[in-house]
Write a structure and sequence with these properties.
Layout: H1 2-23, H2 41-48, H3 51-54, H4 57-74, H5 81-91, H6 100-113
Helix pairs in contact: 1-5, 1-6, 2-4, 2-6
């Protein structure tokens, strides 16, 4: 129980950090306007975290998924990218009340999602004007 509580608290802390970054986004950074309706990056995030344990073929698709994800994020205005990632984490990868393994998987995905814009991944700038 304590492990599960710690896991949820760390996931909540990560989402809070993404929320703070997204809070400084302009008002047009909303889903359906400045942010894609259904972001494809969640498949790439799954392919790089615990998704390969659930569906091994995702590992083979990772390069193609990365290209799609980076292309999609590149089309998003730099000031909307943090919020786009936050929306993806909140909607596409929401935690389930399932097993501890599922909660750990969601946490790993949330942590990795925050790094998708960085230089080693997509190399995209954000509202901060750098690869954050």
């Amino acid at each position: 129980m304590a492990s599960s509580s710690r896991l949820l608290l760390s996931a909540a802390a990560l989402l809070t950090m993404l929320a703070v970054a997204a809070a400084s986004a302009p008002p047009y950074c909303v889903v359906g306007q400045g942010i894609p309706q259904r972001p494809n990056c969640s498949w790439y995030v799954r392919s790089r975290t615990c998704g390969t344990e659930l569906t091994p073929y995702l590992k083979e698709l990772a390069p193609m998924l990365k290209e799609q994800c980076c292309g999609e994020l590149k089309a998003v205005a730099p000031e909307c990218r943090c919020k786009a990632l936050r929306e993806m984490v909140m909607t596409e990868m929401s935690p389930s009340p399932g097993t501890i393994e599922q909660q750990k998987c969601w946490q790993a995905q949330a942590v990795f999602a925050a790094t998708v814009v960085t230089e080693p991944e997509c190399g995209l700038r954000t509202i901060h004007g750098r690869y954050v």
